[in-house]
Amino acid sequence: LCLEGRSHWLCAFVVASVLLVVDSKRARQPRCPSSCTCTKDNALCESAGDDPSQSFVKSEFTEIPKESFIHTPALHLLLFTANNLESINEDAFLGLPHLEYLLSVMHLLTEHLFQVHRKQPHHVDFNLRGNQFTCDCKLKWLVEWIYSTNTTVDQIYCKGPASQLDKKINDLAPQAFDCITTVCFLPVLKFESISVEAFSFESDQYVVFAHPSLGNAAFWSTSTVICKPLVIDNQLFIIVAQLFGGSHIYKRDTSANKFIKLQGIDILQIRKPNDVETFRIDGESFFVIADSSKAGFTTIYKWNGNGFYSHQSLHQWYRDTDVEYMEISSKPHLILSSSSQRPVIYQWNKSSKLFDRRTDIPEMEDVYAVKHFQVKSDLYICLTRFIGDSKVMRWDGALFRELQTMPSRGSMVFQPFSVGSWQYAILGSDYSFTQVYRWDAKKGEFVHFQEVNIQAPRAFSPISIDNRQFLLASSFKGKTQIYEHLVIDLSN
């Protein structure tokens, strides 16, 4: 047996017998086998025997190397008690065709030990009784292993936390564990942007930015505020909303591999665009532009097969800053945010095929933007205020009711987004750190998760590439940034 100690290697052949037996009820020193040299805590033996069991109690070695038991093929049982092992080679237990029981008691349990077990070609019983298991994310690996193995594992129980106390670990499912996540900063993109959106087209992933200072791109100008992608019947369109020179719609010409201008948007209706939203109703494609000028109209446009035409003007004079499309009770709705009134909710009328004003959101003046998200079947909205309190509200079947508030310090974006099964919301700030919140399913609300430093954030967009999750963050005064979402495996 070759075992690495803390300062030296200790090598010897070990007889397959009990190295040390600790009995707290008897003070009598156990007999040392004749072929072994014994100390208080361990024994070293020079020849192999036929005893089918072996114990390691309070051993000083820290590693079990490859084929450590190759000279004891008759072993049926291995017991590790109160050891300080730091690593176990994946082939440590090779050469034990008769091993049936591997007992791990006190301080030994590591995920690697169970990875090692997978190398065993035959059935082995595990006895894990006597361990104090805290059933949190650090133990998720063990639950996954029990869940997937055909090995016999005696019934074991959770000793904490309080929510899991005395639960049977053997009956837990891996999905019951919610491991810690984080957002990792990646290199920045060396340009400013005031909008960003990721989208898919012909099985590829794309990102479109509104770049306020790049004047030599294909269709951007120095007054661009929004670039919105829209895919209709495998055709890609980009709606480019501009403060000066009119807004335009471009179409991707796949044969020429470039964008061509399809049409302009009436400058008498859209004078100062501030947001663009796309949506589909009953198989038809629409987009709506929120106009923030005193004389402009927030206007809905509809695709007719050849181009987009004005379908409905919602109202004038209200200086709308944001428009959000969502379904409430399976019916299409729009929410308009404005600097001069509370957010207004419009509902689609199937008969007239127009949006009718339904209600507003009470006691919510000075809302800059509204974004929605869902948790299971429940509908929520995030309302952004530049100064004061931004809010999260929940639809109760008749009204949106306040759920929680977040302090705002120069906030122009409060963006909910999901990554896998995790739901987040990120509240931007022009004057301090941007705050990231994570949804707590037990509390039914967001809890603070982390903060990031972004100069004048204006938009966020998640994107998935090769099973990696990223968040793109546009910055009006700094550099466009990329964050990667990571899941930290606390068991390693």
Offer a concise description of the structure.
It comes from Labrus bergylta. This protein is mostly beta strands and 492 residues long.
Describe this structure in words.
- This protein has 492 residues and is mainly beta.
- It has 2 domains: 36-176, Ribonuclease Inhibitor (Leucine-rich repeat, LRR (right-handed beta-alpha superhelix)); 184-489, Fucose-specific lectin (Neuraminidase).
- The protein contains 2 helices and 38 strands.
- It has helices at 111-117, 140-148, and strands spanning 2-4, 9-11, 36-38, 43-45, 53-57, 63-64, 77-81, 87-88, 101-105, 125-127, 133-134, 158-160, 181-189, 195-201, 204-210, 224-232, 235-242, 248-253, 258-264, 273-281, 284-291, 297-303, 308-316, 320-328, 331-338, 344-349, 354-360, 369-375, 378-384, 387-395, 400-409, 414-419, 422-427, 434-440, 445-452, 457-465, 468-475, 480-487.
- The strands form 12 sheets. It has a 4-stranded parallel sheet with strand order 5-7-9-10, with no helix packed on it. Strands 13-38-37-36 form a 4-stranded antiparallel sheet, with no helix packed on it.
- The longest helix has 9 residues, at 140-148.
- It is elongated, with a radius of gyration of 32 Å.
- Residues 1-30 and 43-51 have low confidence and may be disordered.
